[in-house]
Specification:
The complex is a heterodimer of chains A (220) and B (386).
Chain A (H helix, E strand, L loop, with lengths): L3 E5 L3 H13 L3 E6 L2 H11 L3 E4 L8 H11 L4 E6 L4 H10 L3 E4 L4 H12 L7 H16 L12 H11 L4 H8 L3 H29 L11
Parallel strand pairs in A: 1-2, 1-3, 3-4, 4-5
Helix pairs in contact in A: 2-3, 3-4, 4-6, 6-7, 7-9, 8-9
Chain B lengths: L2 H12 L3 H25 L6 H22 L7 H15 L2 H4 L2 H7 L11 H10 L1 H19 L4 H69 L2 H21 L10 E3 L1 H5 L6 E4 L6 E3 H22 L5 E7 L3 E8 L8 H7 L4 H12 L3 E6 L5 E8 H4 L2
Parallel strand pairs in B: 2-4
Antiparallel strand pairs in B: 1-3, 4-5, 5-7, 6-7
Helix pairs in contact in B: 1-9, 2-3, 2-7, 4-7, 4-8, 7-8, 7-9, 8-9, 9-10, 12-14, 13-14
Classes of the chains: A alpha/beta (220), B alpha+beta (386).
Chain lengths: 220, 386
């Protein structure tokens, strides 16, 4: 089955370029969008397997779009394709439900592999993202508020994330820790899932506290 | 939008003690009215009522003049405030000529200047801080003693009140100035950040997209175009990091964020990973750590070959900072580091080990043929402050 992809980027030249690249490699480009609002609207209509999401979209950000898409379309995965410098945005997007992150300077091969793996349900971790996620867990652990449901990394997960952040591939990590390749993938995924779950809980709690839990009017 | 904070900055810098000067002026007017009432009430007993009225007239003129002078910055200067103090003490010293000894010593009638005399002490505090205010109050108190000629408990109370008031106003003015400086700093940083974000957005929307596209297409076309693509790619990464790196404004206690300095080291072959939040560290030690990483990376270039990639990871464990530098080159054969040191080529030995030791940190090196090289530096936060 071909993987259906939607490309969201506010820059037409980049958007068309990436779409063409992926088309040439056998992916089906079902839609493109230049801003977050239309990205959410179109994604709901075409239900792509993978959304390639830029974060720098103007008013409504790629983070917001990621949250809306992943919460309404459980079968659609979002892969963030963004500039290497946007640290905090990338972290927010991943917490909002994106299943991976790739820098725009990645090669076409890396992009193809990342989209394939995202479609298969794997988390796509760059070293940069691993560094951000590690930092986020440590920030939460050090934060003064002591809610009991703060997510924590197991020792093994920390070990795996650190190795990812140091540039080791999943296979190299499996060799070094003498565990299976699949186990490495599971550890990595679980670090993301815990973060996303925590984020959802926090958002829901915030919404209830502020009386925002009424049915959202996404389309006006 | 970025214009607004800049305007606020100049406004704040104007003179943070302005409210204190306004208070000084109000005090002068109120105390003058009191002095006038005092002359009216006691003039029948004066030996020289004419001189009393003349003195009161001078006080009136001086009050009007200083009120105007102190309401703008040109009058808030040492010469004028000192003249104010001298004139006040001078007028006060006319009291024995105006008043009868009976009034002065037995009836305890206020001196001709009465509480009007406290104003220079307050003005000195507003201008020069607690010490100047204290000294001003003490001077006025001493002048009161000289005018009365005999010490008394009442006199002592006046001196304490005068010196104390001058000092308190001085402390208030010093605090106001300090907070104004901090506020101006914060506003400047905010303006700089806003401007930087605006630049970053516009660069992201234009130059970076084009560079990224050139790199991608060039690679696909190959040949000479690939050469150009490589150059475009290098510039792309450099520019991205430049716009991403936050301004390295140091905090009041001399700490800076470690991340921007490290992020500037990133190239297409070097990945720098950091937390999303600031990693604050003493400025000098942070500079040492950054140049240490640079050294390790140049070592990668020299020994691991042109195609080797490298990863830098910064971790903040609260009590300590962990910096890792790893490459996927062939690794350093056993004994190479030691022999290099023996030959006096000290590159790694001195630069890296020495720096880590001077920061009170530990260094771990993991390497082996075919395994790449990995440096892990751990520095304690407290130890680094030495």
């Amino acid at each position: 089955m071909t993987v259906s992809v939607m490309v969201v980027d506010d820059h037409p030249m980049w958007r068309e370029g990436v779409a063409r690249d992926l088309q040439e490699r056998g992916f089906e480009i079902v839609a493109t969008a230049g801003d977050a609002a239309s990205a959410v609207r179109i994604a709901k209509a075409v239900r792509p397997n993978v959304v390639l999401m830029d974060l720098n979209l103007g008013e409504l950000s790629g983070v917001d779009a990621t949250l809306m898409i992943t919460s309404e379309l459980p079968d659609t995965r979002v892969l963030v394709l963004s500039a290497s410098g946007e640290h905090d945005d990338v972290l927010q997007a991943v917490k909002a439900g994106a299943s991976g992150y790739l820098v725009k300077s990645a090669s076409s091969e890396e992009l193809v592999e990342a989209v394939t793996r995202t479609a298969a349900g794997d988390a796509v971790f760059t070293a940069g993202l691993a560094g951000l996620v590690l930092g986020e867990y440590r920030r939460m652990a050090a934060a003064p508020d002591d809610s009991e449901d703060k997510p924590q990394l197991t020792d093994r997960e920390t070990e795996v994330l650190r190795l990812v952040a140091k540039g080791l591939t999943a296979r190299q990590i499996a060799n070094r820790l003498v565990i299976s390749h699949r186990t490495v993938e599971n550890h990595v995924q679980s670090t993301l899932r815990k973060l996303q779950l925590h984020n959802r809980v926090e958002l829901a709690r915030y919404a209830i506290e502020h009386g925002l839990d009424a049915e959202p009017e996404a389309e006006k | 939008m970025p214009k607004e904070p800049a305007e606020r900055v100049t406004k704040v810098i104007d003179d943070p003690a302005t409210p204190l000067w306004r208070g000084t002026i109000a005090l002068r007017i109120v105390t003058f009215l009191f002095a006038a009432a005092n002359v009216i009430a006691n003039q029948s007993g004066y030996i020289q009522p004419d001189l009393a009225w003349i003195t009161l007239g001078v006080m009136a003129l001086w009050s009007v003049f200083t009120s105007r002078a102190y309401s703008s910055t040109w009058g808030r200067r040492w010469p004028l405030v000192l003249v104010d103090l001298a004139l006040t003490c001078g007028l006060m010293s006319l009291s024995p000529l105006i008043m009868s000894d009976h009034q002065l010593l037995t009836l305890n009638v206020p001196l001709i200047t009465t509480i009007w005399a406290c104003v220079p002490a307050v003005a000195l505090g507003a201008l020069g801080g607690p010490t100047a205010g204290f000294a001003g109050g003490l001077t006025v108190g001493l002048s009161t003693y000289l005018s009365k000629g005999v010490p008394s408990l009442d006199l002592l109370r006046d001196v304490v009140l005068l010196a104390g008031a001058g000092m308190v106003v001085g402390m208030a003015s010093a605090t106001a100035r300090r907070s104004a400086v901090l506020l101006a700093q914060a506003l400047r940083a905010e303006a700089a950040t806003a401007e930087r974000e605006r630049l970053a957005r516009s660069i992201h929307d234009s130059v970076l997209q084009v560079l990224a596209r050139v790199r991608k297409r060039g690679m696909e076309v190959g040949g000479e175009a690939a050469e150009l693509a490589k150059l475009a790619g290098e510039q792309e990464v450099a520019l991205r990091n430049l716009v991403a790196a936050a301004p390295t404004d140091s905090t009041v206690d001399g700490e800076i964020d470690l991340r921007p300095g490290l992020q500037l080291l990133a190239t297409p072959r070097i990945q720098v990973s950091t937390p999303a939040t600031q990693v604050m560290f003493p400025a000098t030690a942070a500079g040492e750590l950054t140049s240490l990483v640079r050294e390790a990376l140049s070592n990668v270039d020299k020994h691991a070959g042109e195609d080797a990639r490298a990863w830098v990871l910064l971790e903040d464990l609260g009590e300590e900072i962990v910096l890792s530098v790893r490459d996927d080159g062939p690794g350093i054969p056993e004994g190479r580091i030691a022999s290099a040191a023996a030959e006096g080529r000290m590159g790694i030995e001195k630069s890296i080990k020495g720096r880590v030791e001077s920061l009170g940190g530990t260094l771990e090196l993991q390497t082996g043929p075919g395994e790449g090289t990995e440096w892990e530096v751990r520095v304690f936060r407290k130890g680094a402050a030495r």
